[in-house]
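Worked example

This section walks through a single chain of length 354. The input is the sequence exactly as stored; nothing has been trimmed or padded.
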Amino acid sequence: MGHVTLPDTHPLLSGRTASSSLVRALRGDRPEVLPVWFMRQAGRSLPEYRALRVGTAMLDACLDPALSSEITLQPVRRHGVDAGIFFSDIVVPIKLAGVGVDIVAGRGPVLDQPIRTPDDVAALRPLEQEALAPIAEGVARTVAELGDTPLIGFAGAPFTLAAYLVEGGPSKDHIRARALMHSDPETWQDLLGWAADVTGAFLRAQVLAGASAAQLFDSWVGSLSLSDYEQHVAPFSARALSHVADLDVPTIHFGVGSGEVLSAMHGVGVDAVGVDWRIPLDEASRRLGGGVPVQGNIDPAMLQAPWPVLEAHVREVVRRGRAAPAHVLNLGHGVGPDTDPDVLTRIVALAHTL
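Given that input, the structure is written out below as tokens.
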């Protein structure tokens, strides 16, 4: 991979997003106004999304540039958040690399055939550059509409992808994936190496097309011990991120249940760490050594609470976030499908006064 800088027209270089509150915070600065966006802000909680999606399968929506762009823009228009996050799914690059996968309503990603043996892994094909065209076009369309609001690119971390691939779908504790890690470390390394390059290429395509930040999601990292993470997973998350390392774009690493591995998640080479709802941000910042920008960590369950309860919680999150050098307000996980979108709009308005 030769050293490529971003095109001059990229929003980070053209003066559109470099001084945005999100980018400044991710780079360790405290902007005048606290930046806020929400994981899963696009999609199921919005009536305009449900109307748009009628008759279109989830993965088809992700690969239709006009649709993925419009869905990404909906929450930015509605809530006034400080960033869009590209609407996609972590299994999109797997599908683009030729793996049979579908998103089943109410269940999540389900594979035609789980990937469990050395032969299964050997048969995986790399992700070809041209397959990413609908992603790049979707991002470019979105960025053209966003003006000076930054777009965050998005990809799944290799462990979370491997957990789906080995289990064949969602699972509770990823026993098969974790067993493979220990019973056949060579096959595990081949699988995670493949996943890292596929998801890294997916992230790179989004950044080159105009994303001003990039977030790696490790949804299932909470099922790992620290030693398993450091030995069998972290090198591959670093490899995924290496695909955008030469582009000088701020990066965020988020995991669910990641309290034990926070510092190691920062160590793979990111600017900021997303924290789930289980540990307060001041404690997370302490575990991160005190010098790392944090993102989070409103408890998504609180979105159902009466406003005075939620408001007190948001203020508390922001107060604890002051322990870190910089803070991007977010949830500690994604917006639930039955969240009242007006509550999110209200949080944004509140955040912008804090």
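What to look for: The first helix runs from residue 21 to 26.
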